[in-house]
Design brief:
3 strands
Length: 54
């Protein structure tokens, strides 16, 4: 399925399972940073991750 133009996919739910004791906001990141996410669009769960190199 291909969406274009004004048809945007908006997650209905975002999961944040974390293997660390605390997650706090940061104002800057020093690469490399692992970005991992799981989002729901309707009943479909999408999982992805990547390493941000800056």
């Amino acid at each position: 399925m291909v969406f274009s133009g004004s048809q945007a996919l908006i997650p209905t739910r975002i999961d944040c399972p974390c293997a660390i004791a605390a997650v706090e906001p940061v104002s800057t990141m020093q690469p490399p940073v692992l970005v991992a996410m799981a989002v729901y669009i309707g009943k479909t769960r999408l999982i992805d991750n990547f390493i941000y190199e800056g």
